[in-house]
Amino acid sequence: MSETFTLVITGAPYSSQAPQTALGFAKAAVDAGHQIDRVFLYGDGVHLASALCAPPSDETHWPDEWSRFLTQHKIPGVACIASALRRGLVNETEQKRYELPSANLRAPFEIAGLGEWVEGRIKSTRTLYFHAGD
Amino acid sequence: MTTLIMIDQPPYGAWTGREALDMAFSLAAFDQSASLLFTGPGVNWLRQTQHAGGIEQKSVEKNLAAAPIFGMDAILADRAACIAYGLDEHSLIEGVTLVDADADLLTDYDHTAFAG
């Protein structure tokens, strides 16, 4: 039976394995014919949506890998606005609102409220959480 | 769909508890059944008369006081953890239900979640 998943990532890339584990799961789920309704970044997980990560060239670029996966499969990626603003992750709208020097949200991620998580839980058959594990 | 949001970290020193509280409030705001369970050092959230000004933080007591207004079903605290941290009915904030945070309790809920 085909499942629909909402994935919640709360661990940041390069300080936790959460984004990597979540991507491995997401690829396997899609390959097996399941649907990913959306990916919701919460807490430190919002760092995955930063356009400014620049890891060494011999390391996997997890934000880039996630962006490509979401774009390829047309899966919405949403960063929680409260988590994002606290941690310095903003789109152009929030940049203007708070008069910040730049925006740094990477495509195709968007910024929205926890209502996106609530809706994902209702629409999906399963919601999985990928934490930092500390 | 009933959801239990679990907080197992103390109120100051980590932000995940506050973000867990936001998750619970969001569920309630969207008319989804939600309860909070405090376990381990997390029960210190429920201690009366917290003075967080000394560390330039807002007391989490006020956040929790808003739970009934938001329509939260229940605030639960693990009985054993309360004993371990010296919390009783005189030192706990109002409206807390003591429970045994075991597998039986979790079966009462469709979903359980941590913030991190």
From TrEMBL, chain A:
Segments forming a coiled coil: none
One matching Pfam family: DsrE
Keywords associated with the record: Cytoplasm, Transferase
Keyword Transferase appears in the UniProt entry: yes
Record's GO cellular component terms: sulfurtransferase complex
GO molecular function: sulfur carrier activity; sulfurtransferase activity
Cell compartments where the protein resides: Cytoplasm
Keyword Cytoplasm: yes
Biological-process GO terms, alphabetical: tRNA wobble position uridine thiolation
SUPFAM superfamilies for the chain: DsrEFH-like
Family membership: Belongs to the DsrE/TusD family.
PANTHER family, sorted: PROTEIN YCHN, SULFURTRANSFERASE TUSD
NCBIfam families tied to this protein: PRK00207.1, sulf_tusD_dsrE
Protein name per Swiss-Prot or TrEMBL: Sulfurtransferase complex subunit TusD
Species for this entry: Marinobacter flavimaris
UniProtKB/TrEMBL annotation, chain B:
Pfam families: DsrE
Organism domain of life: Bacteria
Transmembrane segments: none
Coiled coil: none
Family: Belongs to the DsrF/TusC family.
The protein's name: DsrE family protein
Source organism: Marinobacter manganoxydans MnI7-9
